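Q: Hi! First time doing this. I have a protein sequence and I read that you can turn it into a structure. Is that right? Here it is:
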Amino acid sequence: MNIAHLYIHIPFCVKKCNYCSFASHVPQSGEIEFYLKHLQKELLLVKQKHNLLLDTLYIGGGTPTVISPLLWQDFSDFLFKNLKFNSNAEITVEANPGTLRAEHIHIFRDAGVTRISIGVQSFDDSELQMMGRCHTARQAHEAISACLASGFRTSGDIIYSLPHQNFYSYARSLKELVTSGVGHVSLYQLSLEHGTPWQNLPKDSMTDGYEEYRYAIWYLKKKGIYQYEISNFAKPHEESRHNMAYWTGKDYIGLGVSAASFIMGQRFQNTNNVKLYAKMINDMKLPVAAGEILSRAKSAREAAVLLLRTTNGIDKKNFISKFGSKMLNEISNKLMLLPSGLVAQNDSKIYMTQKGMRVANLIWQEII
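A: Yes, that's right. Below is the predicted 3D structure, encoded as structure tokens:
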């Protein structure tokens, strides 16, 4: 069978942000070259087992633009020599405004990258400094302008509910992102994750995010940027097709440390240790640390949760064809026990209302 969606993880950053719990670290001397060499070997191992004919490729992190343009050129040449793409494939690279260079943009454009996702987070320099970001608001504007001028579909991320952040600062950042010309906006409420410098921040230093989220839905729609998933908004035809593949239950493969794969109801997770990752690959083994075969019932519940993240919701006909009417009825009955106004349905689909989107965790708990 063909696998149409591939993710590649680059686990390196200039510095670790205060809120970040992702698998990333500051690389030691020579570690980037070492890692890229083994990423190439992993791809060749995967190709022995699976036929990759890609509709989407997403290179994320970490910070992929920590890799120097010279190394990027070599890595890019290898990737596009060894990967096959469908026509009109979406190819995304994440970028940090503080490390994105003109040379990166030229390499991405020449390689056929179609989309750049820029980690803006805020257009307030004091907030950026507080978060531990390695860029300024001006650099974020420059990065967006350069990507748009080079013809990339461009996305920007914003974090809200920052410690002691006032609403007007957040609203200004959102407005600046929209007026910059991006076609896609991702909004993430700050969460205090274990193992991060901010894990013990007092919760009363942050808002509950309700006002910010509600405002974003109203403001972005007014500007022609429409919500298509809980945290994601886009102009027409600028949705992230790669992320939609996750939410709609498509098979995908992840390469690199900590990367996840989902193939025919089985989930795999690569080791998050770079040295162990390299050793397993050198032993001609895929670097899988954990795996799970999902039962039909668990697959159905997880599929329902992912679909409900999107504004399209659960297509009843498609869901029944995959999991059966009994599972749909079980999930529907649980959802109908929730307080009124959170979930709606008609003859063709079940979906969350805007009110439901704001309390999504309550709904996930009910299904799972």
